[in-house]
Every structure is written in structure tokens, then in C-alpha cells.
Design goal:
The complex is a heterodimer of chains A (255) and B (290).
Chain A: H1 2-19, H2 22-42, H3 57-75, H4 78-86, H5 89-94, H6 100-128, H7 136-165, H8 168-184, H9 197-202, H10 207-221, H11 225-254
Helix pairs in contact in A: 1-6, 2-3, 2-6, 3-6, 3-7, 3-8, 3-10, 4-7, 6-7, 7-8, 7-10, 7-11, 10-11
Chain B: E1 14-15, E2 18-19, H1 24-30, E3 31-34, H2 46-56, H3 61-74, H4 90-100, E4 108-112, H5 120-137, E5 140-145, H6 148-154, E6 157-162, E7 165-170, H7 172-179, E8 182-187, H8 194-207, E9 213-218, E10 223-227, H9 230-243, E11 250-254, H10 258-266, E12 280-286
Parallel strand pairs in B: 3-4, 4-5
Antiparallel strand pairs in B: 1-2, 5-12, 6-7, 6-12, 8-10, 8-11, 9-10
Helix pairs in contact in B: 2-3, 7-10
The chains are: A mainly alpha (255), B alpha+beta (290).
Chain lengths: 255, 290
């Protein structure tokens, strides 16, 4: 009970402070739209690739944008934790009876709420731009579960890194190091058949790729259960690993 | 350690009747902690900061509302409840910071260097709030400071900690009396020089066997001579030193202050501007008089 209430209030605090930055909110929502427009324009000629079949590049790339947005949204979740450390808020909080895990869980959930809003917006824009979602609304909901798992693991990892590194500069460096390469090391931008062999092998070790494949299946093909099962299992494991890392760092670095 | 942020490596400590190692959660429920650095959320209002903490202490909404009204009055922030903390001045933030440690009516409140880095005016006001707090809330205040003046002003009981050990404790008055009478401070020079050192050593040896001298303590540039009666000792000292050919630049007679107490017990002067050459913390404990 205490835990639930603490998580609720921590989440609300984090969300409130996010929503008090109108510029941040606006750009967070606008950024994915820019990507969707920009990338599909740049790679327009890729639509002629035989590997894409009858699918347009926009249709192919939409899942990629959703996953990219999740990555860039959740990977920075640790910055808020750093700020709390720097402002003395964390140590003050630790002297209260607040349940310890709620401090991290609240931040992660608040990041998730933002992600879901962003993802829904992208789906809506994509549909307006002409993307057909084969599985319809249930498919969108299942997609949201998939990306939430990816974001959950990443946000928890980011919070753990913040506690481990303690400073902004190294945290920014690490996140930059991970974020964009993890998109390139997947089939988000290129059909897997067109990737060089080594990349095609490597992507199977990248949780991002499972999310991309899962969401893309739901949009383009329908319920490919064998792929979906693997995707959900891998991402569940990923989320669990991220949370474990975050919790361990909190236990040893914050308390 | 007493506020459970650090775990003891050995030994036990009881706070508000609970062991800090075995039941930290019970300790936390009964204490308020106000750190040296202000720990308030700038991007929230005063009320939001306090409400959040109210929930952490499991208070219900009605109690929280009621308490916020009382506490904002106590720290004189009424009218600022719904303003963003980022618009508060430094002194106001500190007051809010203290208020956050009071929301659950703790039995003990830990104030760690509550006025460090504040201007004298703000400091005097914070002192007023601390006095008010002790009077109106029936709470034990555990305050650490390295401002002797602050300890003198606020403490009912005081302990001096040097190198991690309590070296003496008592009321400020008791401690001052323990020095014995008055302090005559002699100074031959403003900066530390070899000449100055020689002067201090010679003066010390000349005065050491005089019956009216209770004790002596030197710093880099001064020599504090503890005597029974300052007014009569001062001319005496001047005469004795003059007959030995020692010239005194400045001489002052004072009632002992806590600075003298600190100096006597630790053999060191407080020089915070030098980044505290020795570890020292002085602990003043104030019990509410109710």
C-alpha cells in the first residue's frame, strides 16, 4: 500500500515537473513528426527497392520512428535523477520513510507515460500520412506494450547509470554512445535482407531490433505469433535486466 | 548516521527509542532531517514540496493541508504556498527546507549547519525560527554548526566534537565558566612570522609561573591568557612583559566566548576560510523547554 502510494506521488511529481516545461513537451511531440517527414523524404527512392515489395518506405519506416522516439525519450530518464542528487533532493528524501524502490519506479513510470503519448501521436500521424495498420487498434495497443517494455528497461538502465556515473557529462556520453548506434544496429531503417551480413547477425543481440520487428509485423503483416512471442520474451528479459541494474545501483550507490 | 543516511560500521545508536541499524524505518518516521544544502524542488511550489513529504510520512490529505497552514505561518512564508520555489530567495528556500522537516511533527529534528552561507540578516531570522520552533513544537533539535556564536545563541546543551570525539559538553554557560574567569588576548603581530613565534614563546614562558594565570592557549598570532580577573590582570601582564623587554602590540580583555572554549579544548582556532585544517564539528543540542 505504502509502496503504491509512494510510486503514485513520485510519478505525479515527475510528470508535473515535465509538463511545466512547455517547450520540452512541444518538441517531444513534434520531434517524431519531423523524423517521420524528414526520413521518408530523404529515403523516398528506397521505396523502389524490390525488397520492400509493395510497401512504401513510410510504411516501412513508421515502426522505426516509434522505436527511435522510445529510445531517445527513455534513455535520458536518468538526467532527472542526477538533478535530484545535485539539488540535495535525493538525500533529503532518503531521510524520510519513503519506500526506496518508489524513487526509481516513479521516474520510470513517468517516462513511460510520456512515451505512450508520443507513440500514440506517431501512430495517428502515420495513419493520416497514409500508413495502413493491418492489425488495427488492437495491434496499436500491442505495439505500445512492446515499446513500453523496451522503454522501461532503458529508462531503468539510464537511472542506474546516473547513480553510477554521478555526473552529467559521462552520462550524456554513454547515452549518446548507446542510443543512435542501437537504432543503426537494427532493421529500423533498412530491410534486414539489405543489411551487411555482420550487421544482420549482430541485430539479433539488440533488444531494439526485436521491438522494431514486433511493431513492424503488427503494422505490415498482422499477428506473426512466432515472432511476437520471441519479441515479447526478449523485451521482458530486457526490462527485467534494466530494472535489476537500476535497483542494484540504487541500493549500492544511493543508500 | 543518526538520520540513517549512513550505516554504522560498528556500535549501536538509539534515536527516538529505535536502533538506527535494526529499525531505520522507525527512526525515519520520528525524525526530521534538514541537510546543510537546501534540498527543495525548485520546479514545484512550496505547497507541492510539503505535500509530497506529507505523503511520504503517510499523513492524510486533511492533516497535510492543516499542517501546511501551520508550518507556513511558523516560518513566515504564508502567501507563498503556491508560488514556484524557483522564485524564492535563498533565505525563503532555507525556511521551506526546514519546514519540510517538520511536516510530520517529528520528535527530533536534525539541523545540519542551518545558516551556512547565509547573510547575517537571514541568519538572525533563521535563528528566530529555530527558537520559535523549540518553544512551540515540543521537539528536540539536534543542531550541528561550526559557528560558535550560533551554538551560544541557540543551544541548551552543547558538545564540542574534535576529530570525531566528543571532548566536552554542557550548557554554554558551564563551558564558558570552565575556562575560569576572563581571557586576556595578546597579539604582537598580524601575520605569522618567526619573530611573532618567538614573542609568543617568550611571553608564554614568562607568564607560565605567575599565580594569577589559570591557563594559556596560543594560535598563530595570538596568545590567550586565562585569568581569574581580567581587569586587574591586564596591567599586571603589561608590567611583567615590559620588565622583560617584550613589547605588546594589542591587548584585549574579554569575557570568555565559546570561541575561547573551543580553543581551550581543541588547542585550535576556527579558521573556516582555510577550509577547516582539522576536522571539527560542534554539536549543540537544544531541548525544548516545555
Amino acid at each position: 500500500m505504502d509502496m503504491l502510494s509512494d510510486v503514485y506521488y513520485q510519478t505525479m511529481r515527475d510528470l508535473r515537473s515535465r509538463f511545466r516545461m512547455p517547450v520540452w513537451i512541444f518538441l517531444s511531440l513534434f520531434q517524431p513528426i519531423v523524423w517521420l517527414l524528414l526520413f521518408t523524404q530523404i529515403f523516398q527512392s528506397l521505396s523502389q527497392l524490390p525488397q520492400l515489395g509493395t510497401v512504401s518506405y513510410l510504411q516501412f519506416f513508421a515502426p522505426g520512428v516509434v522505436v527511435m522516439t522510445v529510445i531517445f525519450g527513455s534513455a535520458w530518464a536518468g538526467m532527472g535523477m542526477l538533478q535530484d542528487i545535485d539539488m540535495g533532493i535525493l538525500s533529503k528524501m532518503l531521510a524520510t520513510p519513503v519506500t526506496r524502490p518508489s524513487i526509481i519506479i516513479g521516474r520510470v513510470i513517468s517516462a513511460m507515460v510520456m512515451l505512450v503519448i508520443q507513440a500514440l501521436l506517431i501512430f495517428i500521424i502515420a495513419v493520416i500520412m497514409g500508413v495502413k495498420i493491418t492489425t488495427g487498434v488492437p495491434g496499436v495497443l500491442l505495439s505500445i506494450v512492446i515499446i513500453s517494455l523496451l522503454g522501461l528497461g532503458l529508462a531503468a538502465l539510464s537511472n542506474g547509470l546516473a547513480l553510477l556515473l554521478r555526473r552529467q557529462e559521462p552520462l550524456i556520453a554513454v547515452i549518446n554512445f548507446i542510443a543512435l548506434p542501437s537504432v543503426f544496429l537494427s532493421s529500423a531503417m533498412m530491410p534486414a535482407q539489405l543489411l551487411p551480413a555482420w550487421l544482420n547477425t549482430l541485430r539479433h543481440f539488440n533488444p531494439v531490433d526485436y521491438a522494431v520487428v514486433g511493431v513492424r509485423n503488427l503494422i505490415l503483416q498482422g499477428y506473426v505469433w512466432s515472432d511476437l512471442r520471441t519479441c515479447l520474451l526478449v523485451l521482458l528479459a530486457w526490462a527485467a535486466a534494466g530494472i535489476t541494474f537500476g535497483a542494484l545501483m540504487f541500493r549500492y550507490k544511493a543508500e | 548516521m543518526l538520520n540513517t543516511l549512513l550505516r554504522p560500521t560498528s556500535g549501536t545508536a538509539m534515536v527516538a527509542g529505535f536502533d538506527v541499524s535494526t529499525s531505520p524505518a522507525d527512526v525515519r518516521r520520528n525524525i526530521g532531517y534538514v541537510a546543510q544544502d537546501v534540498g527543495v524542488d525548485e520546479h514545484a511550489t512550496g505547497r507541492e514540496n510539503l505535500t509530497l513529504y506529507g505523503h511520504f510520512y503517510r499523513l492524510d490529505n486533511k492533516t497535510i493541508k492543516q499542517r501546511i497552514k501551520e508550518i507556513f505561518e511558523l516560518v513566515d512564508l504564508t502567501g507563498y504556498e503556491d508560488k514556484m520555489v524557483s522564485s524564492y530567495s535563498g533565505g525563503m528556500r532555507k525556511r521551506l527546507d526546514i519546514a519540510m522537516g517538520l511536516i510530520h511533527q517529528p520528535k527530533i529534528i536534525f539541523l545540519d549547519e542551518p545558516t551556512v552561507g547565509l547573510d547575517p540578516q537571514t541568519r538572525a531570522r533563521i535563528w528566530d525560527y529555530i527558537r520559535k520552533l523549540a518553544k512551540s513544537m515540543n521537539v528536540t533539535i539536534f543542531l550541528t554548526t561550526h559557528y560558535m556564536e550560533e551554538a551560544d545563541q541557540l543551544a541548551d546543551r552543547l558538545a564540542i566534537i574534535d576529530m570525531g570525539k566528543i571532548i566536552t559538553s554542557g550548557t554554554p554557560e558551564e563551558l564558558k565558566r570552565s575556562i575560569g574567569g576572563d581571557v586576556v588576548t595578546l597579539s604582537p603581530c598580524a601575520v605569522k612570522t618567526a619573530e611573532c613565534q618567538e614573542f609568543l614563546q617568550r611571553t608564554k614562558s614568562v607568564l607560565s609561573n605567575k599565580p594569577f594565570v589559570v591557563g594559556m592557549q596560543e594560535t598563530d598570532t595570538t596568545l590567550a591568557v586565562y585569568v581569574q580577573n581580567g581587569e586587574s590582570a591586564a596591567p599586571n601582564i603589561m608590567r611583567i612583559l615590559a620588565s622583560e623587554g617584550i613589547e605588546v602590540q594589542t591587548l584585549s580583555v574579554s569575557r570568555p566566548s565559546l570561541d575561547d572554549v573551543f580553543l581551550k579544548y581543541t588547542g585550535r582556532n576556527i579558521r573556516p576560510q582555510e577550509g577547516a585544517p582539522t576536522t571539527y564539528t560542534e554539536v549543540a543540542r537544544r531541548r525544548s523547554r516545555r
